[in-house]
Amino acid sequence: MASLGGVDTKNLELPKVDLSGLDITSFNEKAWAIVRLKIAQALEIYGGFEVIYNEISPELRNELLGVVVPELFSMPAASKLGDSEQLPYHGIFFRKPGFPFFAVQLTNPNALSAIQEYANTIWPQGNDFFCNTVLNFTKQMQELMQIIHRMILESLGLEDNYESHIKSLLYSIRFANYYKDVSDKGNIIALPPHKDPNYISIVCQHNVEGLEVENTCDEWIETKPLTNSFTVLVGEAFKAWTNGRLHAPNHRVKLNKEITKRYAVVFSTVPSLTNDIIDAPKELIDEQHPLLFKPFKYYDYIKYRFTEGDKDEDALKAYCGV
């Protein structure tokens, strides 16, 4: 990846990268190359960046986080979607015991039939507004995600791997609800420091901030999303696949004393169920960059990560580090 020479790493703010108007078919253009370099630099030290993306309208964002998500969490059926036997993190629902956080997740949200089936478990009579809003958001997010994945692979000199790589991915969308008791007058950690295990997460906050990201200097950065921006974070799967070229940052959610409720939507890429071996390409292994992680099956790692690996300081290294 590109060097970070000249970047002010003391600036406690995630770099901002504008991808508005860029198209996946125009990657040879000068504008594409400039933005690609900014992303490469940001991911080396921060493991993330704030992406500006005007293709997702304020109206769609408001419909999703101002109407759809609050209504979803007001439904009793939403809290009964899953059971404890599901795969941690990738099941229908996700909790963190001891913390005021609850999320529900939908895999394959780019298929209307999957969204409708999901909606019918919450609204037996169906909910067209929910389905159409989620599908429209997913279509735009999928395009953004593919641009980011493409730029990362190009920065690594692996553009020829893009087609096979993108076909090996699944998409997921997670609706998250963070809350605290109104009697609690202080700041509260709603979700403790953690790393995402997936490839890439794109976090959509709405009116209420709270996401904080730890940089490689062990400093916490408060994200300051704009009305047209999203926070992009690298996960452990991409860190391992790139042989450590990408930094997977710790992040957390903090609710300040004025906030009792926060909603967010997280759009992610994960390995497919049938092609989940994480194995660094040989092009990324040399004398200067020896192999850091043995090949592993992603979903086996997930089971470890959220059971005995939950107490590891670095679960990925403990599980498959060389």
TrEMBL record:
Entry keyword Metal-binding: yes
Pfam families: 2OG-FeII_Oxy (PF03171)
Domain of life: Eukaryota
Molecular-function GO term, any one: metal ion binding
Domain (Fe2OG dioxygenase): residue spans on this chain: 169-271
UniProt keyword Glycoprotein, yes or no: no
UniProt keyword terms in alphabetical order: Iron, Metal-binding, Oxidoreductase
Family the UniProt entry places it in: Belongs to the iron/ascorbate-dependent oxidoreductase family.
Protein name: Fe2OG dioxygenase domain-containing protein
Protein's organism: Dendrobium thyrsiflorum (Pinecone-like raceme dendrobium)
